[in-house]
Design a protein that fits this description.
The complex is a heterotrimer of chains A (299), B (328) and C (325).
Chain A (H helix, E strand, L loop, with lengths): L1 H28 L2 H18 L1 H4 L31 H37 L1 H16 L2 H12 L3 H28 L2 H9 L3 H37 L11 H9 L8 H28 L8
Chain B lengths: L4 E12 L2 E13 L4 E5 L6 H8 L7 E10 L2 E2 L5 H10 L1 E4 L3 H4 L6 H13 L3 H14 L5 H5 L8 H14 L4 E5 L7 H18 L2 E6 L2 H7 L2 E6 L2 E7 H6 L4 H9 L47 E4 L2 E3 L15
Parallel strand pairs in B: 3-8, 3-9, 6-7, 7-8
Antiparallel strand pairs in B: 1-2, 1-4, 4-5, 9-10, 10-12, 11-12
Chain C lengths: L4 E11 L3 H8 L6 E12 L4 E5 L6 H8 L7 E6 L2 E2 L5 H7 L3 E4 L13 H12 L4 H14 L16 H13 L5 E5 L7 H18 L2 E6 L2 H7 L2 E6 L2 E7 H6 L4 H9 L48 E4 L2 E3 L5
Helix pairs in contact in C: 4-5, 4-6, 5-6
Chain lengths: 299, 328, 325
């Protein structure tokens, strides 16, 4: 008797899940542009993951005879002054840029969300402390602060991650504090207390998951910004160090050759940055439309 | 004399992800001059959509798919958007359920009313202000000079509703649509607002459609009542007839389901739940909840037919003979 | 008579903040505060339903939250079955919550949108019992059955339910641990008329079956009449009248109760009633009139009403706070 009802229940559960997945998928795929952006991100990520197999040449292999080759069938994006294949370097650079931006975003998200959640739910001196800290960080122009941190700590890849994470923590902390203040006043928060939950469980089990959608949207948008920051830092020589291939540094190198006519050195890494950042921003907007029920049906 | 408002076979549909939502399914209704008509139904019955359709304020994905709405002999559905704006501004006015959100939060309430006078009556600034104070006094706001310069958030819910009513009657409309004007207000405040509406109706001669879910409000204020269920009009009657001899099984159930302070009677819940109006099957939408259901109910939508003087009902199972008093 | 829950002289003031409050305190006056609950006493016998009625802002919801210590009362004692709730530390209070539950007003806002019906109803069982997962599954199913919901809804999320179903889930969560005391905070005011009757009947049926005690908070005297054994009427933070339900509805004594009753619309166009109309609106709970709090609005007010007035028993079990009765 119990057996059969449990089985029937499992069937119901599976059907419910499939139905919900279909609904979400339909909403996500309705918009062509964000579908394209999603495709671009998946492609870039796959390329980064499969870089050693995908890249036609060793990105660091120099060859004096191949220096400054134009775009050709052998070198789809040409070569640089040391004869290194630009396509291979752009593909390998995707690994570094994405990895740094992703790690920094993940770290900032975790800390920002934690601080924001605690500040928002507890209020009082805790809120004051966290928010003043956040204000202090935000009082500096973000890029100057990142520059300052990498300059002080030394410009290793890890320090670039740390610098970007620190400047991004306020974004998430503020967002989550606001969401938490809203969620805290909801009746289900009160209901969770009435039922007998401990405060930590109310915050992290009941309220936090309800604050996640705007957080995901924000993280996606901030990803684009993080990539830009990595590239910008490297552009001015404070980020990822050569000979490691990195889009920002490559653009900086290429910039010197525009006048002499070797346009491809500047163009391809630049386009790579632009496409990636644009794709993240578009998908962020699309996610906001899908995840935020208030935006539903506006278009 | 023609009725002020005459709705014939009005249908409003909304396009949703899952299919077509038939919010209003071919209703016919008249509002006579100077009367207060109660439009009663539960949420989702289509009563608010009907009011919005009269003002032609149905926005996509919603659409008026068929029907006719004649206001004072003119077909509203054929008017240009420009002419319709004029109708909305000065002929038909609407009072919304949540007055606080319907008022502009960054403009003093008096300014909002004065602007109506300037726009629709071409008054000068000073004259508009004088008339604003006058109308605020008319809707029973004490110290209108002080209140007029306050903002919506400084006023109580009841005050906001009075301001909304003032705005609605400022242009001397001939038809007022009041959508749940007292829902969310405390009983004593709600009673004051209803008194005011009734009084305004009598003084200005304007007709009124009072949309509500509360049969008590209807009994106290309205001259006639139309009952809606899941997008269909099931019964229309003068108020005494409806409460004395409710004919449609839904109306009967509705009357029996409300708690009463004035008598010792039991509450009997209406069986079943409000049916979905997402691509509903043909026929009467009350069929699944109805104790009198016959096969025909699920096949053919019943027409609204006269039963006795000023009392129409849309039900296959109702014959004049089996209409009995509601409760002795 | 033994009581299950008793509140004595419960007070909750929310001190005002900001420059104006500070200035007024400097000026020698008392620190201004919103006097939401200003000294009320309640007593609930096991198995009975007490209706607590009043208009918005009268402090009835604050009373509810103080009784369950969701907010801390400023003064007064709360006794639950000989335990002094007002002095209970967090952990024992948390454990006691299995006996003290609440059904919330807004069925949309009071369910966590990310939890399925099963997890919502399961949570109190998980927190307060030692049942195994399988036993809890059965218990959840049984509770849902009690409130009239089928097992096919177990894996639904709140937004996939109708308003009536949500309110039933809300009730299921509250009664899952078989609490002895449940506060119903306007459980039907967000529902349609046809659902209202169903929920009221369901709640009354559950109370008799499970032997619970209810505090039923509402602004709607009509529904209170069908559920409560006794009714207490609140105005501006105090109780102005308290009586057995039948007595209150047939012989209301306080002008405020009479005004409330006479303002309720009756679904009978031929009903003739005398209306007692209160002037204006409820004064601010920051600036409460001295003496009888209703006197600024009361059509019957006399000079004596400026004197303080307390509840007194005019007929057995019928308490009124009015000089003129």
């Amino acid at each position: 008797m119990r057996e059969t009802s449990a089985m029937a229940e499992a069937v119901v559960l599976r059907r419910e899940r499939a139905r919900r997945a279909r609904l979400l998928w339909r909403r996500l795929t309705k918009d062509r542009l964000s579908l394209a952006a999603g495709g671009a991100i998946v492609a870039i990520m796959l390329a980064a993951l499969a870089a050693p197999w995908l890249a036609p040449y060793d990105p660091d292999a120099t060859s004096a005879s191949d220096a400054l080759q134009r775009v050709s069938l052998r070198h789809w994006m040409g070569t640089d002054v040391y004869g290194r294949d630009l396509l291979s370097r752009v593909i390998h650079a995707a690994r570094v840029d994405l990895l740094v931006a992703l790690t920094a975003t993940a770290v900032a998200l975790t800390w920002g969300a934690f601080l924001g959640a605690v500040a928002g739910y507890r209020g009082g001196w805790m809120d004051q402390l966290v928010m003043r800290l956040v204000d202090t960080i935000m009082a500096f122009p973000a890029f100057i602060l990142t520059m300052g941190i990498t300059a002080t700590l030394g410009n290793s890849t890890l320090n670039v991650v740390v610098a970007i994470a620190i400047t991004h923590v306020p974004i998430y902390a503020r967002l989550l504090r606001g969401e938490m203040l809203k969620a805290r006043e909801m009746e289900y928060a009160e209901a969770a207390r009435t039922v007998g939950n401990r405060p930590a469980r109310i915050v992290f089990f009941h309220l936090l998951p309800n604050c996640v959608p705007p957080l995901i949207v924000q993280a996606t948008l901030a990803m684009g910004f993080a990539i830009l920051t990595v590239a910008a830092l490297s552009f001015i020589g404070l980020g990822i160090q050569p000979p490691q291939s990195e889009w920002g540094y490559m653009t900086a190198e290429g910039a010197g050759y525009i006048v002499s006519g070797e346009w491809w050195l500047f163009l391809f890494p630049g386009v790579a940055i632009m496409v990636t950042v644009l794709a993240f921003n578009l998908i962020g907007d699309a996610l906001r439309d899908v995840l935020d029920p208030r935006m539903r049906g506006v278009r | 004399m023609t009725p002020l408002l005459e709705i014939r076979d009005l249908a409003v549909h909304f396009a949703a992800d899952e299919g077509r939502v038939e919010a209003v399914d071919g209703i016919s209704l008249t509002v006579r001059r100077g009367e207060i008509l109660g439009l009663v139904g539960e949420s989702g019955s289509g009563k608010s959509v009907t009011a919005l359709a009269v003002l032609r304020l149905i926005r996509p994905p919603g659409r008026i798919v068929r029907g006719s709405i004649r206001f004072d002999g003119r077909e509203l559905l054929d008017l240009s958007e420009e002419a319709m704006r004029h109708v909305r501004g000065s002929q038909i006015a609407m009072i919304f359920q949540s007055p606080r959100t319907a008022l502009n939060p960054v403009l003093p309430v008096g300014r909002q009313i004065a602007r109506l006078f300037e726009l629709h009556r071409g008054c000068s600034g000073h004259e508009a202000w004088q008339r604003t104070l006058e109308i605020l006094r008319l809707v029973g706001i004490p110290e209108p000079e002080r209140r007029a310069s306050q903002y919506a958030h400084q006023l109580s819910g009841g005050m906001c509703q009075r301001v909304m009513i003032a705005m609605a009657v400022a242009t001397e409309p001939r038809l007022l649509l009041a959508d749940e004007p007292t829902t969310g207000l405390d009983v004593s405040i709600a009673a004051q607002i209803l008194d005011l509406l009734r009084e305004l109706g009598r003084r200005t001669g304007a007709s009124m459609v009072l949309i509500t879910h509360d049969l008590g409000v209807v009994a106290g204020v309205c001259d006639r009542v139309a009952v809606m269920h899941a997008g269909q009009l099931v019964e229309c009657s003068d108020v005494h007839g409806l409460f004395k001899h409710p004919a449609h099984p839904y109306t009967r159930a509705l009357v029996r389901s409300i708690p009463r302070v004035d008598r010792e009677v039991t509450m009997e819940p209406i069986p079943g739940a409000v049916p979905s109006v997402l691509e509903p099957p043909p026929g009467c939408r009350y069929a699944d909840r109805c104790p009198w259901v016959i096969d025909r109910c699920r096949e053919v939508k019943p027409e609204l037919l006269p039963l006795e003087h000023d009392h129409e009902v849309a039900c296959h199972a109702v014959e004049p003979s089996n209409v009995v008093p509601a409760r002795s | 008579m033994s009581s299950l829950l008793e509140a004595r002289d419960l007070v909750k003031h929310f001190p005002l903040k900001g420059i104006r409050a500070w200035l007024s305190a400097m000026g020698g006056g008392a620190r201004p505060a919103v006097r939401a609950v200003d000294g009320i006493s309640l007593r609930l016998a096991p198995g009975e339903t007490l209706g607590l009625v009043g208009e918005s802002g009268c402090g009835k919801s604050t009373v509810a939250r103080c009784l369950l210590r969701l907010i801390e009362p400023s003064a007064g004692r709360i006794l639950f079955d000989r335990t002094d709730l007002s002095a209970l530390p967090d952990e024992p209070l948390r454990r006691l919550r299995r006996d003290l539950q609440m059904v919330f007003q807004d069925p949309n806002a009071s369910l966590n949108p990310r939890l399925t019906v099963r997890r919502t109803v399961d949570e109190p069982l998980r927190l307060h019992t030692t049942l195994t997962t399988a036993e809890r599954q059965d218990a959840v199913r049984e509770v849902l059955d009690r409130v009239g919901l089928g097992p096919e809804l177990l894996h639904r999320y709140p937004h996939e339910l109708s308003g009536g179903q949500r309110q039933r889930v809300n009730i299921a969560r509250a009664i899952a641990t078989r609490p002895r005391f449940v506060i119903l905070d306007e459980p039907t005011s967000a529902l349609d008329v046809s659902l209202r009757a169903k929920i009221i009947l369901l709640l009354d049926d559950l109370r008799t079956r499970l032997g619970m005690t209810y505090l039923f908070i509402s602004h709607d005297l009509a529904t209170v009449k069908y559920l409560a054994h006794r009714v207490a009427v609140m105005y501006l933070g105090t109780i102005v009248e308290e009586a057995p339900t039948r007595e209150l509805f047939s012989k209301p004594l306080h002008p405020y109760t009479r005004a409330l009753l006479s303002a309720i619309p009756i679904p009978d166009p031929d009903a003739k009633r005398e209306r007692l109309i209160l002037a204006g609106e409820v004064p601010s709970p920051i600036d409460i009139p001295t003496g009888c709090r209703l006197r600024t609005r009361c059509p019957l007010a006399q000079p004596v009403c400026a004197e303080p007035v307390g509840l007194r028993e005019v007929t057995p079990n019928h308490f009124v706070a009015c000089h003129l009765v």
